[in-house]
Amino acid sequence: MNESWFEVDVAVKEIEADGVVRLELADRKGRELPGFTAGAHIDVEVTADLTRQYSLCNSPRERRRYVIGVLLEPSSRGGSHAVHDTIQVGHTIRIRAPRNHFALDPTASRTILFAGGIGVTPILAMAEDLSESGKPFELHYCVRTIARAAFVRRMAQSSFSAHVHLHLDDGPPEQRLEIGQALGSSADEAHVYVCGPAPFIGYVLESARARGWPEARLHREFFAGSTSNITSADGSFEVQLRSTGQVLTVPADRSIVEVLGETGVAVEVSCEQGVCGTCLTRVLQGEPDHRDVFLTDAEHLRNDRMTVCCSRSKSARLVLDL
């Protein structure tokens, strides 16, 4: 995979729904872009010192454009505001080649897709891919109001429109999501994919687990952290670097990555909320206090990796592979 940055032009920027803009990115000379698989995202340099991840929502079979949808977050630290207010058609921006931590399982007998709000973006690429591959699936899209439902026109005009179920919080009762009916039986080799806000993901996954779905067939991707990174109850701890043996103290009100940066140890970060996995670092000794939503519960239990942007330590010292 190519980790280097490259430039693309903003070919299209349009309002997709209330608070959501759609950007189409293309090579300025019309050349093919690096390929991707459904569920992939790209790193976008939205300002000189700010990088954010956005899921690709067009068909993976397309090679001359990347399509992303960006929600304007009221609590944004600058990323979504820059996309909405600053980046315009004709601008050249830097991105990285697509990466995928949310890939479809090709062995699934059928696939059930759940999208909450802007979480529809990777789910939409999955629907495109499954439809073009002739594989059975259903898509359940849950959103507050029709005005906030992004890409509904595209889905209505698609070849897979019959597989799409739109669930509106303010709509009539008969169209609300019935999770038991949507999940159906767990007896076959079906897989569930869910993306959106943390409470929505938790509801879908817990409902599936209660109905006997095995963990290996449940897949999720968050769009925001579900826990606070630093609280008043946090204490200090030490971090030791494998390469030099240097020991650093992480105070209660600072993150590991902040302390590392102050001493000249560069760790690449992006979301700073434990969502994207960019800062994932190997743990050689000690017990992390995991506060991310990137790693699975099973990966948390292994305690061999941690997100140093938001996670802390349960032990007095962590030894990191840095």
Automatic annotation (TrEMBL):
Q: What name appears for this protein in its UniProt entry? A: Vanillate O-demethylase ferredoxin subunit
Is Transferase found in the keyword set?
no
Instruction: State the superkingdom.
Output: Bacteria
Q: Signal peptide position in this chain?
A: none
The cross-references to Pfam families, in alphabetical order and at most eight, read: Fer2
Q: Which UniProt keywords apply?
A: 2Fe-2S, Flavoprotein, Iron, Iron-sulfur, Metal-binding, Oxidoreductase
Which species does this protein come from? Caballeronia udeis
Q: Could you tell me which CDD domains the record lists for this protein?
A: fer2 (cd00207), PDR_like (cd06185)
Domain named FAD-binding FR-type is located at: 3-105
Record-linked PANTHER family:
CARNITINE MONOOXYGENASE REDUCTASE SUBUNIT (PTHR47354:SF1), NADH OXIDOREDUCTASE HCR (PTHR47354)
- Locate the 2Fe-2S ferredoxin-type domain: which residues? 237-322
The answer on whether this UniProt entry bears the keyword Cell inner membrane reads no
